[in-house]
Amino acid sequence: MTEDPRISLRLHFESGLTFGRGKADLLQAIDDEGSISAAGRRMGMSYRRAWSLVEEMNAHFAAPLVDSSRGGAHGGGAQLTARGRQVLADYRALEALLRDQGAGALGRLRAGQRSAPA
């Protein structure tokens, strides 16, 4: 059972990019799997959707977050660039800060809630 409410972080950039847990998790999956396709499968999304999200992220940063090579006889692959690793680390640090520093306020909000109807 998850606690209600939960804190989630979503960043809205002036460039139009929205970056939240899903995109951060996709970057982590690409880093773990070495493949956009495998990362998409792990997250339950199509390759096309995963590729589209990678293209969107790459287009909105000064340097790409993911470097990929085409498939073929030896298969392709993907890896996070230095910028991609930094973006992921910074996002995770902000998540941890929000979770740790917001725990007291979240507890007070939770305590003030009515019980859910039966």
Automatic annotation (TrEMBL):
Which top-rank group of organisms is this from? Bacteria
- Matching Pfam families: HTH_1
Q: Which InterPro entries match?
A: LysR_HTH_N, Molybdate_resp_trans_reg, WH-like_DNA-bd_sf, WH_DNA-bd_sf
Ranges where the HTH lysR-type domain occurs: 26-85
GO MF, one term, reads:
DNA-binding transcription factor activity
Q: Which PANTHER family does the entry link to?
A: DNA-BINDING TRANSCRIPTIONAL DUAL REGULATOR MODE, TRANSCRIPTIONAL REGULATOR MODE
Q: What protein name does the entry list?
A: LysR family transcriptional regulator
**Which organism does this sequence originate in?**
Paracoccus pantotrophus
